[in-house]
Batch of 4 targets.
Target 1
Amino acid sequence: MNKARFLFGLLILISQVAFTQSHKISGRVYHDQNQNSVYDKGEQLFKGILISNGKDVVATNSKGVYKIKPLQNNPIFVIKPKGYISSRTPQNNLKFYYLFEETTENKSFDFPLYTNKEKENVTIALLGDLQSDVIDDIHHVSKLVTEELVRKRPDIIIPLGDLSFDNLEIFKPLSETLGLIGVPVFYVIGNHDLNFREQEFSNRDKTFEASFGPSYYAFEYGDNLFLVLNNNFPVNKREYIGKLDEDQLTFVSHITKKFATKYNSIKIFTHIPLEYTSNKEEFIALMKPFDEVFVAAGHTHTQYHTYFERKHKSAVHQLVGGAVCGAWWQGAHDINGIPFAMMYDGTLKGYWFLETEDKDYHLRYKVSGMPIEKQIQIWVPEKKEWDTEMNVLNEPYVYANVFAGDNATNVQVSFDGKTWLPMENYSGVAPELKRFYLLQELGRYKGQKLSKMPKPTTKSHHLWRLRIPQSLSKGMHLIRVKANSSQLKINTEEVRVFYK
């Protein structure tokens, strides 16, 4: 019986492969002016719109018609052109694709497009790992992200993968809350969004695709070219590595060639940072046509910048953007029931704004629940008389955690508002994280149902410090810290009261 089932399944698989290799999908790309999702005579047909099967990229002819072979287990999709957009679901996901299962049942698929007002300069909300497992986490996301972005809507939203914590049923409520913001959402797949119940490796993004579409794709928006990658490469039963498969590299090669004469920059979104991607050099080589390359990634639950040098071109700038969930929604809960959950480098949880400007861009971190101006966390020693158990944390230093900082960032401190002293870039554990852990170990959170955080060991990439001058007089002082970086467009200042 088992052998018969195996042979029957094998026969179906062989027939599907033979079918996909022997026929082409065709259809039209048109301006759906009456918005009925059906092509009507007289509606504009678009020439030169790109369609892909995840490997090949073809363009529509003068009659708006494309032809392409379906690729086993891959959706077919349209590359969104500037000024137009596909239909949006009630959750503001874009229906710009047809799943592979649909292509085995039909041979004709049209892609309707709709006029979309787009500024040349685009504001994108980048959401690092949301890591939603239970509905409680969706409540957290609603308070930390949705309720904030509704008040100041970006043009688009890009979650950077690990939407879930292996609970793929959470995709629906997560997309529902992000959809309430009212702008298009372009999703990136993370390793925790893979379906390891699927036996075929190429099907492990199947659940993601059913909810959000292709796990890698490209699109234009405003005066920008964007590329979304899937570098979560499944191995064994429940493991993965950072790698781009061959079909995807071929797709990227086609995209770079198609757009090389139109754009001199490209912005890329992926989950696993490039330094953990085994074939990153091959991928970076494909970016040769572009003078400026920016990459945003998640995955590490920390924040930092990496620069990958290139010959005769500016370095590829990568932002590893941390996580909306901080460190896995760990630790004590605040008055709103949200875990404090600082990231493993002491960064307060939040998200990023990426703002494009001509051929340039600006980055600004937004701490959830705090003003946008909050870019630095200052730490000073506090000698306590009542809660003396905290005194063990005191060091004779002022620390500054500059959320968007890199090695080129200039950080200075002033104890009198006049004289500014340079702070040292320090590789160590953030003091806020030490306090967070100490409170937990002292039992201060007992009675709360929480996920405990591990002992902090991660060294921050954006921590500065300076020894407090012994000559500083006793009493209250207003300490000022400022950070500046022309490269990252950082120019910010924060204050803290210190009692000596």
Target 2
Amino acid sequence: MDFSGLNKKANDSFQQQRNMLKKLAQGKTLHCEKCKGVLTLDLATSEPGKGVIKCKQGCTDIILEIGA
């Protein structure tokens, strides 16, 4: 089996999300690809060690694991 296509897609998605996190952490404004709403970065969630990137509509909802 050739998983190279799947691996490339997963890597591209990871890189896109990493770049999104970097830009939000720098205070830049990013918009959701689907609803065009503003994305927010919340690192002060109720769960320790977790953060979230989301839009108001909920179509973008990325859970972050924050570790040492």
Target 3
Amino acid sequence: MSWRHTDAETPVRRGADGQLYIAAQDVTAMLRDMARAFDLQARSGGAWTVEGGSDPVRVDGDTLRTVADILSAQADEMDDQLLAISGRNDQFRC
């Protein structure tokens, strides 16, 4: 599995307070991208080469699908929370 999410895909900004920030919709999109990658690996046999290694590593398809489901559920929950916040306070619109 060779999934890489780059800074070009997810803009990271430094706030006036020095903290790093990522837009909430980028976080949920990244979670969904990861879930799709895990699901794809499950469908293709669950093997990938670890970076720096040469032997493929096998992971059970059910485990990969479970991870994908958890990541998707986290993204859905985050979207629900953000929608609830945006309904109460305009400064948090997503």
Target 4
Amino acid sequence: MDTPLPLWPRLIITVITMLVASYVIGLGWQGVFGGSIPSYVAGVIGGLAALPIWDLLKRIGPSAK
């Protein structure tokens, strides 16, 4: 009954989450420090933001009709 969300929708949502998290942190970094964020820091932040989203999406299945 609890079938997980297929791989491709999970992957797309996770990548979008990574990009949005990196972008938002980059804007905050630029506002606070006045410069661009190092790319490795943005990557780490995006990856860490994606981990709980991936786990959540593995638990959520498609809606039952």
